[in-house]
TrEMBL record:
<protein>
    <recommendedName>
        <fullName>Sensor-like histidine kinase SenX3</fullName>
        <ecNumber>2.7.13.3</ecNumber>
    </recommendedName>
</protein>
<feature type="domain" description="Histidine kinase">
    <location>
        <begin position="41"/>
        <end position="257"/>
    </location>
</feature>
<keyword id="KW-0812">Transmembrane</keyword>
<keyword id="KW-0808">Transferase</keyword>
<keyword id="KW-0472">Membrane</keyword>
<keyword id="KW-0902">Two-component regulatory system</keyword>
<feature type="region of interest" description="Disordered">
    <location>
        <begin position="254"/>
        <end position="270"/>
    </location>
</feature>
<keyword id="KW-1133">Transmembrane helix</keyword>
<keyword id="KW-0597">Phosphoprotein</keyword>
<keyword id="KW-0418">Kinase</keyword>
Length: 270
């Protein structure tokens, strides 16, 4: 049974680490720029060896009765062909990179679905901890982002809220939309976080003392993943907490219109 626990924990850590690896927005933009420069440069670079090979082939044809000349043209042709090979290799790598990026492509995300999925993932955990999950607030709001990443982030907050709460308490997930932002708040009536720890809990592997004594299964990675995922969406995470009274973690994201509400799809940054 202990082995099963360890395996489950290791899998959890592996999943969380995958999310840590996702690049932040500024790096995303830098990559995008690099890619565009690269495409402009390569199309020019590709033309050069192709043109050279064509010219050398013509020259070889007309020099067919001079073996020395033919050999010289042939060796230059082979060098150009090698250059062409290297270039195509680089282009292949680039498109692989792009494909990996596309897997986490941002799009329209319905917050209702993110909340529903995140709650569903932890329903069993909540029941076995005798914690009731309650959903409230606004419906029908949208953000731009990756639904999977947001579900993972909100899920981490819900998992913590359950883990650090007493039996018979409630965990609330509330959505509030303002003109330009969407806030998703997770509130618990649990052990809370001492003021001295409130900044540090977002650091990788940091765990507050109260938590360590209560739940040995934690990794200290959850909140750093939440922070990273949310900042990748151009948002931020806020924390309000009082020891023994509870905590509220709020994910604040820039708001976007539903695509069918007449909004134009967001253009890719150049
Ligand atoms: P983990 O929960 O695996 O230890 P996290 O990064 O998710 O790691 O959280 C870091 C620390 O923040 C926890 O160890 C705990 O001290 C504190 N913490 C997070 N969420 C809560 C919460 N809802 N109530 C009380 N403490 C919390």
């Amino acid at each position: 049974d202990e082995t099963r626990l360890i395996v489950a924990r290791a899998t959890g850590i592996a999943e969380r680490l995958t999310l840590l690896i996702v690049r932040d927005i500024s790096e995303q933009e830098r990559l995008q720029q690099m890619r565009q420069d690269f495409i402009a440069n390569t199309s020019h670079e590709l033309k050069t060896p192709v043109g050279a090979i064509a010219l050398l082939a013509e020259a070889m044809e007309s020099a067919s009765d001079d073996p020395d000349q033919v050999r010289r043209f042939a060796s230059r042709m082979s060098a150009e062909a090698q250059r062409l090979g290297e270039l195509t290799g680089r282009i292949m790598n680039l498109s692989k990179l792009q494909a990996a990026d596309e897997l986490t492509e941002f799009g329209d995300v319905a917050v209702d679905e993110v909340v529903a999925h995140a709650l569903e993932q932890y329903q069993v955990q909540a029941e076995s901890a005798d914690v009731s999950l309650v959903r409230g607030g606004d419906r029908g709001v949208h953000v731009r982002g990756s639904a999977n990443i947001l579900i993972e982030a909100l899920g981490n907050l819900i998992a913590n809220a359950i883990a650090y709460s007493p039996h018979g308490s409630r965990v609330g997930v509330g959505v509030r939309a303002t003109a330009d932002a969407v806030e998703i708040a997770v509130t618990d009536q649990g052990i809370g976080i001492a003021e001295a720890d409130q900044q540090r809990v977002f650091e990788r592997f940091y765990r507050a003392d109260q938590a360590r004594s209560r739940r040995t299964g934690g990794t200290g990675l959850g909140l750093s993943i939440v922070k990273h995922a949310v900042s990748r969406h151009g948002g931020e995470v806020r924390l309000w907490s009082q020891p023994d009274r509870g905590s509220t973690f709020t994910i604040r994201l820039p708001r976007s219109e539903a695509p069918d509400a007449g909004a134009t799809p967001a253009r890719r940054k150049r």
